[in-house]
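Issue: copy button drops trailing tokens. Both records pasted manually instead:
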Amino acid sequence: MILRTRDGIPLLGLGTFGRTGPEGLAAILNGLEAGYRHIDTAQSYGTEGNVGEAVRRSGLPRSEVFLTTKIADTNLDSPRALESVERSLETMGLDHVDLLLIHWPSQRDAVPFEDYMGALAEAQERGWARLVGVSNFTIRHLDRTEALLGPGRLATNQVEIHPYLQSRRLVAHARSRGLPLTAYQPLAKGRVAQDPVLAAIGETHGVTAAAVALAFLMAEGHVVIPASSHPGRLRENMAALDLRLSAEETERVRALDRGQRFINPEKSPDWDDR
């Protein structure tokens, strides 16, 4: 059974950053073969073409694969935002995506917030995206979005979350609005694999430390989008769907939080947990 959010986003997805060229296409196909039905891409990844091709080659009905892409921060100004969505659809060979995100808010509001959020809403109204959401938005950005578009319009906010960065202020705010978060880098760039706490819990359940981290995040209500090109690790990560941690194990993972952020480029907003 595929676990989903209220809007139908599968809780376990496959990230595609770096999955370019023939090897990247093979990795995405491996994911689909392993059972992943949520594929995450972005204009800035250079993987939209591979994602569309992988879905076609898989033989799966389009309705069975949930596809997410993101408008790059370099394409936020009008009318470039909507034009970029058209190009993304052409690149993927699709007439719509299931979820369209703003990848990063405009740095220092160089592009007016109302302009690019309005373009996101218009893309949905044109039928180019079934759902819309955001990425790397802070509480302040989420409040501005709700004031502009109305409550409940967003399907998710995709942010960095993993056992070492649990973003409790942002999580609490999102929960108060009924907004699921999507955790990118949920395995902390592979660091969870060597974590003794996660490894010990995993040994108890016969799964990997990575599966423990993913199961913890999903139990917290988050969507997770780990990335891997290795067929074995793809299957190992899927074991998280059937893993249930005890209350004591959950508290042990919560205690790993140390506010450690790995993705923090110059264009980053003022994070809520600084």
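Record 2 (pasted manually too):
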Amino acid sequence: MRIAVIGAGGVGGYFGARLAASGEDVAFVARGAHLDAMRRHGIKIESQLGDLTVQPVQASADPKELHGPFDLVMIAVKLWSTAAAIETAKALVGPHTAVVSFQNGVGAIPALTQAFGAERVLGGVAHIATAIGAPGVIKHTGAMERLTVGEPNGGVSQRVTDFVAAAKRARINAVASDDIQRAIWDKFVFLATFSGVATLTRQPKAVIFADPDLKRLYAEALAEVVAVARACGIALAPDHVEKTMAFSEGLPDAMKPSLLHDLERGNPLEIEFLSGAVARLGAEKGVATPVHRTITAALKPFAAGQQAA
């Protein structure tokens, strides 16, 4: 399978390298020092599940140099780079190409459908904790890693099973979902809430759950996202808030979301696509979202990165 990965950071770099090491024909769109290091030394994965190095590696900042079209294009950039990633993908997409986003948020399927047509789009969810440890090096924290893929309108197609089979050959924990929209929202409920509350307070998980007021705020934020999801037609379980609270409370005490790490480093923030998306969709559906509206407003001055802050 020919696979193009747009964004060779923590998610795209990790899964793309695993696929390439297993024999799939993988090419990366990358840039800067990370691209230079990949060209010189390959891409390296450091993980308790097994280290590996792929060298040589197909990588370029110019998608035309990768000689599309591809069977599958994976988009794994930060949400604020989605529009640019879509433009990049156009040089890689042919009549039979599938395009899947493994980004956070709930806006990828609509954006990709508008750009490429519903017949080319898959839905995807990535669960993994990774980061660029150094140019050309992806560090995987912990043992959790999973990709979930499905057809946006439900069901499992041949192209979904083909990709899942390729991922499993690469020793990736891959799952085909017959309700990918629900899987995307399931992650989004947790992620929008944890990212928003932790970044608003500048605190890790332990502080949030040790303080009764912050814990109550967290539960209220969860309930808002669940209400918005249901208003959007997503059939989440009746006890979804309670289960997500229990999951969140079981996280490592020192855990911080990537949104908070980005704020601390002065990087651009994905807040518009997390709490901001909750607030926008809530307004469209008539669902009150006061917690996420407040989070969005409070973090707005930092959204563009250090210069705006």
